[in-house]
Please model this.
Amino acid sequence: MSAGSSADADRDALKRAAAEAAVELVEDGMIVGLGTGSTAAFAVDALARRHRQGLRFLGIPTSEQTAVQAREAGIPLTSFAEHQQIDLTIDGADEVERGTLNLIKGLGGALLREKIVAAASRRLAIIVDGAKLVDRLGARTPVPVEVLAFGLEATQASLEMLGASARLRLVPTGDPFVTDSANRILDCSFGPIADPARLEERIGRVVGVVESGLFISRADPVFVADAAGVHRLDSARAHRGSPPILVVMGVSGSGKSTIAEELAARLGWSFEEGDALHPETNVAKMHAGIPLTDSDRQPWLERVAAWIDGQRAKKQPGIITCSALKRSYRQIIIGDRPEVRLVYLRGDRDLIAQRLAGRKGHFMQTSLLRSQIDTLEEPGPEEDPLTVDVEPPASQVAETIIRLLGTSATTSQSVATPRRIE
Ligand code: 5RP
Model:
């Protein structure tokens, strides 16, 4: 075996191992979305084997190619005409972002049907080999964008206005690649993408675009196979409520707003400045250097809770700042809302006092810091906070939070060791 084919065999063994782990999620009676690509093909093989062993399920393929493979393997298929709700979809991806589990998909050309199937699925299990895990989407892979053939050049120009270099995908004969829905694909290289959710929205607004290959907050779980075995990454949604809402807490001057804004930009989640929800009377008191009482804070905390409930009702992730100094305050804003995660910004008192002294145009008086520190009840382990030190620059603190969110919100467990294909 040549070095190249041995490496391919190793990679296939990883793909197969990830696929086998995901197929374990399929239960009797399920409607299963069947993904597209070389990794998803291993899942279709494994599903066919389980079908022969007696597991009953119906498949909805994400491409003509997968439909052919599934039919030949004897998997019974159904369609959206019969079933609009899919229990579980198993699909590959081109890149998976650590922590957020956001994806780039579509190098295989099936992104439109894949997204329709993913959107109709209760769960989207993603299967990849370790080479596809990245810190930032877009550094290595372009974002495939499915566009109408009509007006292609105008659509391409509009996508380039968003900062991409957009190339028409071609087949080896030099003709344009044509999707299952008779569209074209523009592979758009943006470089590392700071805010994939925002980019997905912006691409979606371009006239002529049918769909992009950015899959935001959809994957859950992701099975990653590497030499050490298959690791399962579960999204925050699996362990807590779905989707997650972060309450960034700490005393005044700990950097809540700057860090929360940085997080919001990176994760693409909505942001609310908790201080903006204070009633006028509270702002006036703080301006005058008068500490707020529990009853002053009550209506404010209720407004913070209302914002959180608004996000929950819309099923949107979000980030809100709130000093949330006492346990009883946190009880009001978090209570039994499983989606909410505390991010506690802990800092040295002198450092915070120094930062506060340098801050202009804010109603919080430096003199109030002492009262805030005296009031603060640090969150205990039962509140399961993500605690971070605020000494490093805000961008670094945000990075740490995303990493912590990734390792606690994405639990990594070994589920299998890949078998080498001979
Ligand atoms: C097809 C896809 C594929 O899932 C993706 O391209 C990964 O493919 P492979 O498993 O062959 O690397 O999104 O549209």
